[in-house]
Specification:
The chain is an alpha/beta fold. It has 2 domains: 229 residues, Rossmann fold (3-Layer(aba) Sandwich), CATH 3.40.50.300; 63 residues, Beta-grasp domain (Ubiquitin-like (UB roll), Roll), CATH 3.10.20. It is built from 12 helices and 12 strands. A 6-stranded mixed beta sheet has the order 2-4-1-5-6-7, with helices on both faces. A hairpin with a 3-residue loop joins strand 8 and strand 9. The longest helix is centred in the middle third of the chain and has 32 residues. It starts with a strand and ends with a strand.
């Protein structure tokens, strides 16, 4: 599956610096608000030593890692949801991402300009979170108007959608994120609308551990049930592994592998998928024509020394379509 993350935050908090670290591309990280005037998109390989070891075992011609798309969004300011700064244009860019990475400036110093005069992480978090809520509230109200007439005419699906939107509106008006409510986590309607507060959120607290106050951590924890944070000094730290690892965790993703002389490859799927669904990550034909799969854990394949040796030891398992794929499985599909 495609994994994409939108990077948001106030101007000059470290978003473009993070993007540079993640992608090794030099996007404009100038020291003034709105230096980023288009969303920069970077495709970043997921570091995975398991894949490298499998490729070495199989003497693969190609090694193809899983990837993450990062969208670097222009800095938001107070009033962005109603058009302040570069406003709605950039909030719209993150409607399609799987998760939001909120970068918060925790480091001090006056050499980097702060749009509000001086850093205040709790206030800055509230500013961005409020803009996301207001953007969603606007989208929900517009859709309520759209489906209201259909619901009044007796359309059952329209009535269901209107009820969901009404509940969402009440939650947003109480200044809460939709992601705080478990029943909304997989709601298709909210995914269709690209509601920002329904997306899993990861915070990157930019600064040394000593810069991050307990009050800031408590504020992050109050945003939603599944919100997580990492602390990283972007001036001195490569944050790639931590960001990607936490992104996989909040999205409930795992990797399985295919390996051979031609290529070794990592495939990203949702935890809990069965073998037939996992085969669809390769191609829809694999899912439709699935017969069975040969499966072995990656470390057992390495221990055996290869497919032939694993088969001779009786370590390969034949699994049907309902087998639940485990993180680190190596799979060969019969179709």
């Amino acid at each position: 599956m495609k994994l994409s993350i939108g990077i948001v935050g106030l101007p000059n908090v470290g978003k473009s610096t993070l993007f540079n670290i993640l992608t090794k591309q030099q996007v404009n990280a100038a020291n003034y608000p709105f230096a980023t005037i288009d969303p920069n998109v970077g495709v970043v390989p997921v570091p995975d030593e398991r894949l490298d070891q499998l490729a070495a075992l199989s003497k693969s011609v190609q090694t193809i890692p899983a990837v993450v798309e990062f969208y670097d969004i222009a800095g938001l300011v107070r009033g962005a949801s109603t058009g302040e700064g570069l406003g709605n244009k950039f909030l719209n860019h993150i409607k399609e991402v799987n998760a939001i990475l909120h970068v918060v400036r925790c480091f001090g110093g006056s050499e980097v300009v702060h749009v509000e005069g001086e850093p205040n992480p709790v206030r800055d978090i509230e500013t961005i979170e409020n803009e996301l809520i207001l953007k969603d509230l606007d989208a929900v109200e517009k859709n309520m108007e759209r489906v209201g007439g259909e619901a009044r005419s007796g359309d059952k699906e329209a009535k269901r959608r209107l009820e969901l939107l009404s509940r969402a509106k009440a939650i947003l008006e109480s200044e809460q994120f939709l992601s705080s409510y478990a029943e909304f986590a997989q709601e298709q309607l909210f995914r269709e609308l690209g509601l920002l507060t329904a997306k899993p959120q990861l915070f990157l607290l930019n600064g040394a551990e000593s810069d991050v106050a307990e009050e800031t951590k408590r504020k992050v924890a109050s945003v939603g049930a599944d919100v997580r944070y990492i602390v990283a000094d972007l001036g001195a730290t490569d944050a790639v592994p931590d960001v990607i690892r936490e992104a996989y965790r909040i999205l409930g993703l795992i990797s399985y592998f295919t390996t051979g002389e031609k290529e070794s490859r990592a495939w990203t799927i949702v935890a809990g998928m069965n073998a037939r669904e996992a085969a669809g990550a390769i191609h829809s034909d694999f899912e439709q024509n699935f017969i069975r799969a040969e499966v072995i854990a990656w470390d057992k394949l390495l221990e055996a020394g290869g497919w032939t040796e694993a088969r001779n030891k009786g370590w390969l398992r034949t699994e049907g379509k309902l087998y639940i794929v485990e993180d680190g499985d190596v799979m060969y599909f019969k179709v």
